[in-house]
């Protein structure tokens, strides 16, 4: 009997094991299954449709498969961009080479935007083999991305942050045309990306307001999706901003702890336009460079003090606060009377929110930039070491340094001077323009003309594909990992009857790489109403002249030979009214809280 009872109990245990319901999946587990299923579909589309048709299909069939591939990619983009950014850049990065200047190497681009260039504006069948090679490279990169994504743990806080960043990415790189420079399909693709965000957020439970916002955003991008006609301001204010605000609030309600604040983006900021969205210290070169009020105050004193140069010149001589830290000259005055330096003085507002300094990007940090300027024979013709000696002879300066750097040695060291100056410059990020206040919905700040200008800037004129929101410089949100340079073909004299290229060869001067000849860093457009004259050579006196240059397609658009120009040479076909609207928008980027000496 005991034997029978034991057998029965064993059978009951087995039945209970197989009949018991499985424990509910966590949001992360559901998201992982969603990711891998959509990654499967993407890989199958690339291999069985795009690659097959690239080998032998017609132009129309290849294009159809390509657009389908892009839509499939948008289903997984929030994961690849967040968890596998290097692979993601190879999947959908800009179709331009990347350069390692120190090693004098160029890395050819790959991915969907490179394939797009093979298919649009027309497909040359003689390049079919090259197209097939690019598709195979895409398939290979997808394989590498899968390995990374299969191994990664999708934690709840990271997933919510990835969803917010995808909304930011749609605003900055999707609907601006950066992702789809030739097909102009960015608005349609935003629909797919938003649907993916909606599905992933659904794994966390039901949130009626958030789901309704996403549903309405999907409907808006589906119904009003022509590239030039799309109202980007309305999309951001009615949908994108409220979506990221609601995600932020919901995370708190769910009790999911936010991520640490050492990231570039502050994950607790509600929108891309929150005043605290960016962590300035993330752009600093070291932990010692982290800002404190004492460091900023000391750096400001040094910035405007001749003790640094040992003469009469200060940093403020060429970077005047009332001119948004420029000097109003085509090229800054050199130490020798009547002489001038090589280039125009750029604004120092927002200079810390980039990964390269100077127009030719020869300095990677503000600290190294400070050293370069101090020792430059035409600017200060001094040295940080000599400045340190002078500072150590003045007790009030030594005390100020000891207060700012409590663990420092008995005497001021050269690195402390560099750090203090850089910390002050890095603090010059007021984000207080009428545009900022409008985007925070503090009150209606922009006129109809300025809103029209913003939509043109981010749309038809494609300014936003190089000057990225919210800083409007060459460092693209939401990753903020790379600062771009462009080859525009700036003219020596815009008013000359026969235009010629400015002879300054930019990044080529110190890199020696031919591909970088005439390449210059993309600066911020904030406070542009105060920083005339424009371009690295200061040859453009007005914004109207600058807009005319871009409207014509740069040097190539004006018939000059410049094979490595990165600015598209096609005319923008902006009307006079449209140009005026863009300029009106640019003037709305002037900070209302200006720094004083």
TrEMBL record:
Entry's Gene Ontology cellular component terms: cell envelope
Protein's UniProt name: Cytochrome c peroxidase
Keywords: Heme, Iron, Metal-binding, Oxidoreductase, Peroxidase, Signal
Chief localization: other
Cytochrome c domain span: 448-590
InterPro entries hit by this protein: Cyt_c-like_dom (IPR009056), Cyt_c-like_dom_sf (IPR036909), Cytochrome_c_Peroxidase/MauG (IPR051395), Di-haem_cyt_c_peroxidsae (IPR004852), Imelysin_sf (IPR038352)
Taxonomic lineage of the native organism: Bacteria, Pseudomonadati, Bacteroidota, Cytophagia, Cytophagales
Molecular function per GO: cytochrome-c peroxidase activity; electron transfer activity; heme binding; metal ion binding
Signal peptide range: 1-18
SUPFAM superfamilies for this protein: Cytochrome c
Organism expressing this protein natively: Pontibacter akesuensis
Pfam families reported in the protein's UniProt record: CCP_MauG
Superkingdom assignment: Bacteria
Subcellular location field: Cell envelope
């Amino acid at each position: 009997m005991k034997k029978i009872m034991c057998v029965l109990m064993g059978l009951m245990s087995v039945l209970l094991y197989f009949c018991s319901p499985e424990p509910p999946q966590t949001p992360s587990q559901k998201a992982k299954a969603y990711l891998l299923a959509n990654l499967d579909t993407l890989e199958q589309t690339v291999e069985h449709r795009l690659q097959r048709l690239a080998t032998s299909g017609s132009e129309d069939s290849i294009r159809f498969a390509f657009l389908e591939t892009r839509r499939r990619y948008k289903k997984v983009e929030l994961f690849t961009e967040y968890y596998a950014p290097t692979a993601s850049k190879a999947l959908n990065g800009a179709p331009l080479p990347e350069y390692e200047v120190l090693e004098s190497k160029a890395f050819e681009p790959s991915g969907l935007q490179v394939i797009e260039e093979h298919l649009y504006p027309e497909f040359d069948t003689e390049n079919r083999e090259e197209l097939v090679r690019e598709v195979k490279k895409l398939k290979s990169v997808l394989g590498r991305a899968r390995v990374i994504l299969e191994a990664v743990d999708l934690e709840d806080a990271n997933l919510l942050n990835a969803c917010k960043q995808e909304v930011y990415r749609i605003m900055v790189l999707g609907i601006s045309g950066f992702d789809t420079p030739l097909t102009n399909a960015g608005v349609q693709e935003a629909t797919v990306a938003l649907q993916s965000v909606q599905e992933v957020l659904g794994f966390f439970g039901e949130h009626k307001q958030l789901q309704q916002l996403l549903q309405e955003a999907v409907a808006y991008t589906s119904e009003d999706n022509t590239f030039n006609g799309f109202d980007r301001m309305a999309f951001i204010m009615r949908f994108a901003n409220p979506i990221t605000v609601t995600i932020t609030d919901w995370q708190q309600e769910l009790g999911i702890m936010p991520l640490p604040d050492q990231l570039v983006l502050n994950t607790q900021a509600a929108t891309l336009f929150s005043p605290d969205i960016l962590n300035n210290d993330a752009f600093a070169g070291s932990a010692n460079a982290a800002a404190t009020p004492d460091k900023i105050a000391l750096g400001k004193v040094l910035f405007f003090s001749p003790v640094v140069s040992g003469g009469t010149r200060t940093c403020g001589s060429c970077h005047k606060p009332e001119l948004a830290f420029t000097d109003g000259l085509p090229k800054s005055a050199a130490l020798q009377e009547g002489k001038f330096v090589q280039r125009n003085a750029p604004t120092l507002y927002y200079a810390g929110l980039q990964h390269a300094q100077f127009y030719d990007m020869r300095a990677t940090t503000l600290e190294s930039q400070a050293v370069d300027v101090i020792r430059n024979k035409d600017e200060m013709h001094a040295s940080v070491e000599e400045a340190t000696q002078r500072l150590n002879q003045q007790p009030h300066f030594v005390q100020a340094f000891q207060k700012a750097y409590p663990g420092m040695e008995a005497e001021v060291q050269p690195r402390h001077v560099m750090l203090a100056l850089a910390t002050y410059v890095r603090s010059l990020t007021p984000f207080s323009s009428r545009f900022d206040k409008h985007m925070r919905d503090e009150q209606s700040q922009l006129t109809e003309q300025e809103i029209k200008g913003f939509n043109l800037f981010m749309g038809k004129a494609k300014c936003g594909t190089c000057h990225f929101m919210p800083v409007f410089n060459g460092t693209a949100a939401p990753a903020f990992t790379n600062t771009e340079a462009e080859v525009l073909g700036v003219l020596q004299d815009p008013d000359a009857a026969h235009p010629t290229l400015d002879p300054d060869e930019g990044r080529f001067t110190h890199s020696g790489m031919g591909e970088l000849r005439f390449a210059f860093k993309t600066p911020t457009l904030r406070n542009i109403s105060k920083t005339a004259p424009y371009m690295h050579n200061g040859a453009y006196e007005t914004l109207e002249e600058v807009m005319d240059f871009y409207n014509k397609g740069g040097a190539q658009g004006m018939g000059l030979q410049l094979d490595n120009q990165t600015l598209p040479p096609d005319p923008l076909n902006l009307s006079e009214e449209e140009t005026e609207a863009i300029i009106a928008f640019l003037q709305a980027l002037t900070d209302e809280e200006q720094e004083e000496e």
